[in-house]
Design goal:
By secondary structure, the chain is an alpha/beta fold. Helix content is 36%, strand content 20%.
Amino acid sequence: MKNSIEIAQSAIMKPIWEIASKLDIKQDEIELYGDYKCKIRDTLWQRISSNKDGKLVLVTAMTPTPSGEGKTTTTVGLGQAMNLIGRKTIIALREPSLGPVFGFKGGAAGGGMSQVVPMEDINLHFTGDFHAISAAHSLISAAIDNHIYQGNRLDIDVGRIMWKRAADVNDRALRNIVIGLGGRLSGVPREDGFTITAASEIMAVLCLSTNLMDLKNRISEIIVAYSRKDLPVRVRDLNIQGAAALLLRDALKPNLVQTLENTPALIHGGPFANIAHGCSSLIATRYGLKLADYLITEAGFGSDLGAEKFFDIKCRIGGLKPSAAVIVATLRALKYNGGLSDGDLSAEDSVSLKKGSENLLKHIENIKAFGIPAIVAVNRFSTDTENEFGLLKEICHSAGVDCVASNVWSEGGKGGLELAERLCSLIENGASDFRFLYPSNIKITEKIDAIIRKMYGGKSAEYSPTAIKAIARLENAGLGDLPVCMAKTQYSLSDNPGLKGRPGGFTVGIRDVRPSAGAGFIVAYAGDILTMPGLPSKPAAESMDIDSEGVITGLF
């Protein structure tokens, strides 16, 4: 079988206007970016906003291993399968960041026979949304330092500037820097740093906005620093919210592409789930729900991160009501969480699988905590045995959930037909009773403790003096009603990536709490989580190349 990039490069794509027409989108409601990509104009929303919403399905996963479990592949394959059984379905995904594309993961557009295309474009620049977000972020950074240089009318405390710079790369050398060197004409020297664009509040703002004016208003509310009198300094105080918004006017429009089987795909926004809220844009989700009977979307990493934030942040802000969730698992990941090393995962081992299934059971509990019916999709590998799969089905059934094999990587939509049929049955027979994990009007510490106890299975939080002061400041500023976005490792239910499976009785260290007032949530930093990743010892970029004909290799 061809590898993923070879499959994508041999795909027979339909012109994007033809994909749009299948959704009853008119040609004057799209902006073409070549033959196979387009953006959707807001005039479409004016026409479809009164349509009945379709069913919203979230694809999440168990605690991931370093190699990933195929959540995006499952989302794409399931969307293809749903259309094969006659259900009008759209998928919604996040845009890949160049950081992980050139870092550890490589391409992030699905895999095998379940990919979104044109894969190379989607992974490399796409329609320029990430660049626009980086530019808007950089404009705010430049405005802050220029304001200080020009006399500092707002009395900004240069030691309490919250707004770091941003770049869409993995570069650990940029985590902590000094700027303004070179004399008086080069600015005011101070410590600074970079965050990756996927973790920028501009990314979160774009992904949670409903229209251009909402975007501009949210940007204006961003807190970038504090004055020497401990007063918040917002973007509106610098009077550049309009300039930042105009940089994002095209990036705000959702992108429409297709899968290998020509299923429509909305790909828009790309916040990480371990250091940001981990969901594609609210505006793309709203379009998808109005245009199809089913919208299949995904949230990053496991249910403790992406799904929790999808429900408690995105659904709360956007007024969304999910109908069901699909939890992706692999037998390999179960054995890994049961204690096996990477080199032993292909061997049959029912003992480690049973032990590792405790991790999956916790994620099932997590979804049930939101009142959402769930189904487990087992992404199958050629080394999987029927004995192991049968054992997992028994374990899932004892927990009250269905467990279905998914072969969408090798077979595309056909490999997900059973999953699609079971999902539809689940939605039709198991009405969702969606609820949030916590109410908005409790204290910030109570929200954090609820997430730790109910999602992670931990005992409590331990707050640093910095975090305690920050929480008091936020509540005194009237921001205590905002939901919490936990920045935590994806490799464990705890804040310690070395704790596999289903740890219990642990405490989570909260080292800092910061406002994302424009986005509409508060970020709590747990453990040693970093907002600027670094490259691995052998970056994926080293295996990538392009020839004289423009053919790309090594991207996936």
